[in-house]
Amino acid sequence: MKNLLVIFWAVFTFSLEARVSKPVWQGIGWSVLPTAHYNIHYPTGQDELARTAALYAEQAYYHLSKRMDHNIAHVVSIFVYPSAERFQETNILGTSPGEGTGGFTEQMRRRVVLPFTGDYAEFRHVLIHEIVHTFQYDILLGSSGGFSFPFSGSMAPPLWLIEGSAEYFSTGYDIAADSYVREAMLSGTMPTLREMSSGRVSNGYVFYKGGQVAVKFIADTYGESFVTELIRSFGRNNHPEAAIRSVFGISLEELDEQFMVYLKKRTLPHVTATLPEESFLLTRHDTDKSWFNHHAAISPDGKYIAYLSIRKFYPVVVLRELSDDLQKKEYNYEKVKKKKPKETIVARSYIASHSYSLNLVDNRLSFSPDGKWLLFSTQTTGADELVLYSIADKKIKKRFRPAVEAIADPNFGKDGNTIVFAAMKKSQQDIYSLSKETGELKQITDTKDSERYPCLSPDGTTILYVSGNDGTYILVEKVLETGETRELFSSGKISDPCYASSDSLYFISDFNGAANAYAYTISTGTIEPLTTFAAGIQTLSHNGKSIAATLQRNQGYDIALFPAAVTQEREPIAVDSLSWDLPVIEPETFAAKPYFPMPYFEYVLMGAQYSNYSGFGSYGQSALSDYSGNHRMTIFTYIISAAEIYNFHIDYGYLRHRTNFYGGIYQKNNAFGLFTISSLQSINDILYYPAFISSSNEIMGYATAEYPLTHHWSLSGSLAVGRLDEEYYYERRPPIHAHLQIAKAAFVHNNVLYSAWGPLDGWHLGAVTEQSFPLTGKDAIYHRSSLDMRTYFTWGVRYTLALRGFYGAVLGPQQNSFPFELGGYNTLRGFPYMAVQGTQAFLMSAEFRYPFLDALLFGFPAPWMMPGFSLVNFVDAGGAAFEWDTFRGYNESEKRLQNFLLSYGMGMRIMLAPGFMIKIDWATPWDLRSSLPMHLWQGTFSLGYQF
């Protein structure tokens, strides 16, 4: 969801000049299918997908309007992307939603946005989940949309209610929710309603499944109508306690007590069930801080295990050595001291362009039969690849990019050459095979069902896979030569089938109330349990002797390894499941039409003032875009009548294709730059504007094109034409009265991992060159080039070392009119703003950032919290000169620095909101011999990250 906090973060973080790097690798041409209550936007040509989405959406509307006792008066737009990869490129958000996001609903325009991933049952679930959010927004905010305080701060409905009711009204209550809550209660990690309301949870998944059971508790205890009434109450009350008391007549603590009793009654019958800790845990996310460990695979010889994990912010593929002492069971609940396992990080996502994404949700890891290769999938430059990692050479040796998209579940065949996998193509998920030696691609299945988890038989004559059709899952065996298929098993949700021998196989199913592993004998059709965990398992892999499984444990996921042996059968877990029968509606004959972009306001900000000093002043800023987000425009105006200042900026961006195009025109009048709410830098410029400027007027038109080479490397070029008139006090530098025609090129690398609290890890490199050229005879001619590099290292999430280096040079007849200037809040702290200038300049900075206070709590005039206090220590060094011959870095006679400027100091960072940082620095110059006493240090105030 895109709530108010997210919108404010985007507004305050990104300026007009600082574009977000989110490549669109394959642009989508949209068509629109209007229905009674929705406009279904879909890729042109995929009409069947559009009709299915329209049917699900209309069924959902009648289902939800009755259950939630509400009707939406306006038409809701739904955007359906053809795959998860294309969904991650959406321009509707300013940033990528990421691979773990199933969909989102925007608050302002109520747009529902989601991908189709091949499974129609899951597609319907996510679509209805997001449509529930449109009902919630309409109940809370009415038909006007836009910003509203009920979705910000302490007055926002808690996420457990928002996401939990979306799950409840879309699916009812299911085994996944029951298993999640069962494990959380058995392990003592289930948060209370108060903890969920205040965000004190280990991971966000609890808001969905923990919230789902909380909403079912309300429905079972008080009645289903109380769920919607609680949502309405948050629209009327400005505090969670008041909202809950107005609906239930009791406090949050009393409601919490009832909730925990409800959960205990549900889970106490299962306390004798086998706990995950009774099998050996290879990972312990609660002590090794990995949180997510998934999709394990065991090598055929049992020497290695490979799995996906998250280490220091990044998803990684881990290859770990197994030793004999690691095969023992243990029953110790405490942290056990062991030798640190030998492991190799095979691939790291995001930080490297060739493995930008590791497809955490749908990936599978697989060893070749000889144990020499590890197979998995990655995503790079908008497409999925199959990757082969050499165990001996410890490097990726082969990559395949088949003519499909959204690869899932790659698996090695026993011949060591054939690779089978599931993939999306034209909104259809089928099974494919690929030759490791030749790269030849073959399609094995071709149906409209969702087909996943392929596994070849030991002799290579048959293949197992799971076929899903509208919530029904069937384990299928297909003879490759004849194409003959037969259904082996079709109860519950099935996954991860694999041959144990020519006559037996393993798979996961939740038909007994929890997802556990089973052994199936093909000749007799008998089924026996391999695991009987109360919370079930997530994934399954084996090498004939051992089974590796993913366990949900203590609000995270861990890898367990145990013998491949049939265990004792036990009674099925009774799940009080609840599912909704969607209303049957007659299919309408919908008439599709081409999508036509129409501009709509995203926000409008205005202000006005009058004073004897400045006269009349006004400010206005608005952002427009079309519904697809491919066309974006920002308009800004700023007037001060007494100073005769009239500034404006109109910026347009066309973002549909891989190359982004921008164009615009602006005027900056007098000493003031463009002050916009979206650019904190502009506020800093006003605070520290150079008083030596007598008068200034700049009007420019520009056009820019940006082309991403990879996720991290990009090229851009721009042309600007305009006029600059600028004069100075004190003859600081020659006045400028000239036309400007400027061509600029930039080569940029950026793999910095940003958080709401600033950069965490990675590095940035920007090489920029610009050249003005003569056209009218009254032109300023100069050449400017610069190189800027920044790198960040983080320890333990909270301690960061940031380094920066910069060099720039200006050449040409008018070079002295366009110098670099150093000094002040973001360059040489401790020196006056723009203390030195020159046609050549360099700057180096080092900054160590560490936490001070997590938050300050205030009780007056109302309870509120100011989060994010941290401290920094820094050193800045640099210099500038018009002629390097005159630059004297060190004065030998006085034994001190001269033109080489050095300062050090300390500062505080205050995070008012994600993306909105206040910086306060104190610094002193230091010439290697003397510095100022601390009470004379120069203090500076600024806003934004800057560095």
Describe this structure in words.
The chain is α+β, with helices and mostly antiparallel strands and 947 residues long. The protein has 13 helices and 51 strands. The protein has a 17-stranded antiparallel β-sheet that branches. Strands 4-5-3-2-1-30 form a 6-stranded mixed β-sheet. Strand 41 (783-795) and strand 42 form a beta hairpin. The longest helix has 22 residues, at 120-141.
User: Largest sheet, described in full?
Assistant: 17 strands, antiparallel
- Rg on CA atoms, Å: 31 Å
Distance between the termini: 29 Å
Based on DSSP secondary structure assignment, what is the total number of beta strands?
51
Low-confidence stretches: 1-20, 146-154, 325-336, 673-678
Q: How many individual helices?
A: 13
> Helical amount among residues, as a percent range?
10-25%
Into which percentage range does the β-strand content fall? 35-45%
Morphology: globular
Return the structural class: alpha+beta
Give me the secondary-structure topology.
Elements: H1 4-13, E1 30-34, E2 38-43, H2 47-67, E3 76-81, H3 84-87, E4 104-105, E5 112-115, H4 120-141, H5 159-171, H6 175-186, H7 193-197, H8 205-221, H9 225-236, H10 240-248, H11 252-267, E6 280-281, H12 285-288, E7 293-298, E8 304-311, E9 314-321, E10 343-348, E11 366-367, E12 373-380, E13 383-390, E14 395-400, E15 405-412, E16 418-424, E17 429-435, E18 441-443, E19 450-456, E20 462-469, E21 472-479, E22 485-489, E23 494-499, E24 504-509, E25 516-521, E26 527-529, E27 537-542, E28 546-553, E29 556-563, E30 593-594, E31 600-611, E32 615-625, E33 631-640, E34 645-654, E35 660-669, H13 680-687, E36 693-708, E37 713-728, E38 736-750, E39 753-755, E40 758-772, E41 783-795, E42 799-811, E43 820-822, E44 836-838, E45 840-858, E46 864-881, E47 890-891, E48 896-897, E49 901-913, E50 916-925, E51 938-943
Parallel strand pairs: 2-3, 3-5
Antiparallel strand pairs: 1-2, 1-30, 4-5, 6-29, 7-8, 8-9, 9-10, 11-12, 12-13, 13-14, 15-16, 16-17, 17-18, 19-20, 20-21, 21-22, 23-24, 24-25, 25-26, 27-28, 28-29, 31-32, 32-33, 33-34, 34-35, 35-36, 36-37, 37-38, 38-40, 39-40, 40-41, 41-42, 42-45, 43-44, 45-46, 46-49, 47-48, 49-50, 50-51
Helix pairs in contact: 2-4, 4-5, 4-9, 5-8, 6-8, 6-11, 9-10
